[in-house]
Amino acid sequence: AGYDPREFPIVLTTVDSVLFTYHEDRLKVLLVQRANHPQAGRWALPGGYIDQDRDATLEDTAHRVLASKTGVVPPYIEQLGSFGGAGRDPRGWSVTIAYTALIPFQACLTHIESVTDTQWFDVARLNELELGFDHEAIIDAGRERFRQKALYSLVPAHALQEPFSLADLRRVHELLIGMTLSRKSFIRRVEESGALIETGDEAPSGRGRPSKLYRRSPHLDDYRFIRNIGK
Amino acid sequence: AGYDPREFPIVLTTVDSVLFTYHEDRLKVLLVQRANHPQAGRWALPGGYIDQDRDATLEDTAHRVLASKTGVVPPYIEQLGSFGGAGRDPRGWSVTIAYTALIPFQACLTHIESVTDTQWFDVARLNELELGFDHEAIIDAGRERFRQKALYSLVPAHALQEPFSLADLRRVHELLIGMTLSRKSFIRRVEESGALIETGDEAPSGRGRPSKLYRRSPHLDDYRFIRNIGK
Which residues pair with A18 in a beta bridge? Predict the structure, then answer.
C-alpha cells in the first residue's frame, strides 16, 4: 500500500524562466502578459505546467516554454532555484522551479516582433510594472545569479550575437555587476582567459581604431576567474 | 476560466534533504529506510510530501521532516536544487526540491538511537548500499555544494558540537574537500576570518599542548574567503 499522492491536496507545480538579453545599451528580461485567471493582464515570467507526455526533465519544460515564446532554445540556461509556498498563488499551495537563461536579442527578434503578449522589458524599469505572483523576487534572484557570473566568468557573452566586440561584452558585464569596469583591464582578463576566440574580423568603432570581434570558445561555460573581474 | 490544474496529470512534488554530520573521523549522511512502496526496504533521503496545513514554505517542509527524523531543526540548511523527471519515481512524473544541511552528531544522538529506520552512514561507503530513486545523485550534489563551502567558508563548523577544536574543524574541511590541509595555514585563515570565536577554554589534545576551543560567530554564514582555503 503506502502513500497514494492522489489522496493529498494537489501542489501546483510549474517551471518559470528568467530570460535576459542585451539590447540598445540595456539589460532586458522577457515577460509574457497573462491571458488567464489569476492575475490576467499582468506581466509575468514565461512559464507553465509540466507536459508529462512531452517533457522528460524539468529542463525540457523550461526549453519547451521558452522555445514557444521566443522561437528558439536559449544558448545558456541553468536552474536558479525553487520558490514555493501557501501564499504565492491564489489557486493554492504552489511551487515553481525557476531557471535563468541568456539569449542574443537578434536570435528571437522576428518571433517576438510577431506576437503582442511577449515583450522585452528594461530590468532597470521593472518598478513601473505590476508583475504577477512573486516574479519580481524571482527576477531579482536571476539578476543576482548573473551578477556573480559576470564577476567570475564570461558567461554573459551568451547575451550577445556573434561576432561581438569586447566593448559590448564589457557593457553587459557592467549592467549585470552594477559598476563601471576598466577597459584595459577587461581586455587583458578576456585575453588571459582563453574563453573567447578572436574571429580575425573587425568592426568600425565610434572613435579611432576598429574593434576586434570575438566569438565564444567551447570552454566558455566552464571558465572561472580566480580573482573577480572588478578587481 | 483559464487553467484548472486539476485537469492535468498530477506531478508528485516532494521535499528531500541531504543532512551531513561529522562523527568518529567520518563524514556521515542521514538515511531513512523506506517502509512503503515503492522501493520498500531501500535507504533513502529523509523527505516527504508538503503538508499544506502545516507548511507555509518549502523550507518549512524540510524543517518539519528533518525534525521528525532527528528531533531537532538543523542549525544550517540551504536549498540545493530541484530534481525532476518522468523516470525517477515509478509512480509517475515527480519533482523533489532538495535541501542540504549540517548538524552536530550530538544534537540528535538520543533521538536517532531511539529508532531503527533512521541511521547515519559513512559517505565514503555509500556504494555498499542500494539507495532509493536518484538519491545517490542528490547526495553527490550535496557533497559538491559543501565541498565549495569548505573551500570558501567556515560553514562546515555547523557539523560540530560547540565548543570545538580547529583540529576537528580542519578534519571536517579535509573530508569535504578531499585533500589534506596545512595545520598552520588553516589556523591562520580561521584567525584572520573572525568567523569563529575563541571560548577561552582548552581541551586536552593527544600530543603536546592542549587545543584552544572555538564557537561559531554570528557572521559565520556570511563570511567568504577571497582565496580558497586550500591555497
Answer: A100
Least confident range from A25-29, A58-62, B3-7: namely B3-7
Q: Where in chain B is the domain with CATH 1.10.10.10?
A: 153-222
Tell the residue number behind the cell numbers 582578463, with chain if given. A189
Residues of chain A with CATH 3.90.79.10: 5-151
Q: Which residues contact residue B28 at a Cβ distance below 8 angstroms, ignoring those fewer than 6 apart?
A: B20, B21, B22, B105, B120, B121, B122, B123
Q: Do B84 and A11 touch (CB under 8 A)?
A: no
Q: How many residues does chain A have?
A: 231
Contact status of B175 with chain A (Cβ, < 8 Å): no
Domain spanning A156-222: CATH 1.10.10.10:
yes
CB of B92 within 8 Å of a chain A CB? The answer is yes
What pLDDT sits at residue A209? 84
Select from B5, B58, B83 the Cβ nearest to the Cβ of A12: B5
Using a CB-CB distance cutoff of 8 angstroms, which residues of chain B are in contact with residue A58?
A: 82-85, 95
- Asked if CATH classification 1.10.10.10 holds for the domain at B153-222, the reply, yes or no, is yes
Question: Into which CATH architecture does domain B5-151 fall?
Answer: Alpha-Beta Complex (3.90)
The Cα–Cα gap between A60 and A77 comes to: 11
| Angle B18-B24-B28 from CA coordinates, rounded to 5° | 10
Half-sphere exposure of A195 (CA within 13 A, CB side): 21
**A54 at interface of B, judged by CB pairs closer than 8 A:** no
CA B24 to chain centre: 17
A9: closest CA among A124, A115, A94? Answer: A94
B10, B40, B85: residue with CB nearest A56: B85
* Dihedral Cα A57, A58, A64, A70, nearest 10 deg: -140
Cβ contact B89:B6 at 8 Å: no
A47-90 residue pLDDT tens: 999 999 999 999 999 999 999 999 999 999 999 999 999 999 99
- Say whether residue A55 is in contact with chain B using an 8 A CB cutoff: yes
Name the residue type at position B224: R
Pairwise CB contact (< 8 Å): A9 & B52: yes
- Percentage above 90 pLDDT, chain A: 88
Residues B225, B204: Cα–Cα separation, whole Å: 30
